[in-house]
Write a structure and sequence with these properties.
single chain, 451 residues, mainly beta, two-stranded antiparallel sheet, 3 helices, 53% strand
Length: 451
């Protein structure tokens, strides 16, 4: 505990010192001006204080918790020749003053987060327009699209990486990039469980194979298409459908662009099939966003978003219809309290944001949160079951509640950024019908320093 406090004080001092470097052009310049040209170093410190109250929806229990999250990353890129490089990133994640919850989800002392070799070179295959190819192998972060299905989950203190590889093909005449990738999701162990020789012996028995294509067309419209195969050698819980091994496929796409008259839009949809235990997987997801930016000084933007992940209304029909949310970064999308994921969800989101200055962004979100079906479970952002209606119950409402999120993002300079957020959940009738149903609160303050 004492070490954690000293760690926090040291971080705070760094924030204060670096806040004075207003004139620095780029964060990496300070560290790298003394290194050889073939080496590049980066250091990032992040501190976040979180306050949670009533996340069990029962105000009769004293579960208010205020705790500190510390994360340090040290990265080094070795680039001996233009085409080849090696990247290594160490990460230290710690938590202090946590009285509820599980530390293993927030804490992982100094470990290798990423370690991979990369090769990239120009090629020319005129018949198909291929002009560049790259290969990347080792421990690495996969982040694609909006990260609703594959993301680095960097909001988390420990984040998410894979042991695997990726081949990337560029087709410049068609403004197309195609990635073919595969990897085992890295599992985290406590410091007591780790051994010196287990760097690549941390499989979570959860493997992904995928292709992901992205192209620009039709007035800079972003068009993405993907196929993702998930296979596990461990049990995954899907509420009333029980637990079992997953072997499913997800095929979908995403389009995004600006429209005339200051409108913008984004649409993503995917279907899912395969096997879960002895059941056939038949699930889907869909997202639609429409926004409008006013031509005023503060650039106010209003947007409406609908998020849908299918649920299973009959766990006894031989089909598993709950959408498998795969490997996402869920935090930005379905309420900052992380009470829901893209599984058994209908989320109606209303958003307003303004930029009083170039450095400051203020945003307010209102989520009307519903289950797709109350006969399936409520799944948290971590894709774990939070609440399930009693078997055989009928007439249960699908309204989980309404969540208000207020956030402020301020970029002090190229090196220091600060975020503040407050969220409140107004409990709905589903919570009332299934157990404790009091409102919940969440507050955080985060500071990030990049060197």
């Amino acid at each position: 505990m004492a070490m954690s406090h000293r760690y926090g004080k040291a971080l705070f001092l760094l924030v204060v010192l670096w806040a004075d470097f207003q004139g620095m052009a780029h964060a990496g310049d300070f560290l790298n001006q003394h290194l050889p040209s073939y080496l590049k170093a980066d250091v990032e410190f992040r501190y976040r204080m979180e306050y949670k109250n009533n996340f069990d929806f029962d105000k009769g229990k004293d579960d208010a918790d205020a705790y500190n999250l510390y994360r340090t990353r040290v990265s080094l890129t070795y680039n001996p020749v233009q085409q080849a490089s090696v990247f290594i990133q160490g990460q230290d994640a710690r938590v202090s003053n946590l009285s509820t919850g599980t530390k293993s989800l927030m804490q992982n002392f100094w470990d290798i987060r990423q370690l991979y070799a990369r090769y990239e070179d120009e090629v020319l295959v005129e018949p198909i327009g291929l002009n560049k190819i790259s290969f990347q192998g080792g421990r690495q972060e996969f982040a694609y699209g909006a990260e609703r299905l594959i993301g680095g989950f960097n909001w988390s203190n420990v984040t998410q990486t894979f042991d695997g590889g990726r081949a990337r093909f560029h087709f410049s005449p068609f403004h197309l990039q195609l990635d073919i990738l595969a990897g085992d999701k890295v599992g985290f162990r406590t410091p007591q469980e780790r051994e010196a020789n287990d760097l690549f012996d941390a499989s979570s028995k959860d493997r992904m194979y995928a292709y992901y294509a992205a192209a620009k067309a039709w007035h800079e419209t972003l068009i993405e298409n993907y196929l993702i195969h998930r296979q596990t050698w461990k049990n995954v819980s899907f509420g009333p459908n029980g637990s079992g091994e997953v072997d499913d496929y997800t095929f979908g796409g995403r389009i995004k662009n600006k429209l005339p008259y200051n409108f913008d839009y984004e649409v993503e949809a995917a279907g899912q099939w395969g096997n879960f235990n002895d059941k056939a997987v038949r699930a889907m997801m869909a997202v639609g966003i429409l926004g409008y930016t006013f031509d005023f000084k503060w650039q106010p933007r209003v947007a409406f978003e609908f998020d849908y992940g299918s649920g299973d209304s009959d766990p006894n029909d031989g089909k598993m219809k709950t959408f498998d949310n795969l490997y996402p970064t869920n935090h930005p999308f379905y309420g900052y309290m992380d009470l829901m994921s893209l599984q058994n969800i209908n989320d109606y989101r209303y958003q307003l944001s303004v930029k009083p200055t170039k450095k400051l962004k203020l945003q307010a979100d209102l989520h009307w949160l519903y289950l797709d079906t109350p006969k399936d479970s409520l799944y948290s952002a971590a894709r774990t079951v939070t609440r399930t209606a009693a078997a055989g119950s009928s007439g249960v409402s699908d309204h989980v509640g309404n969540e208000v999120d207020l956030t402020a993002d301020y970029k002090l300079n190229n090196n220091v950024s600060v975020q503040l957020g407050y969220s409140h959940l107004f409990a709905g009738k589903y919570l009332q019908a299934t157990g404790a149903n009091d409102d919940a609160d969440f507050f955080y303050w985060q500071t990030t320093v990049s060197l």
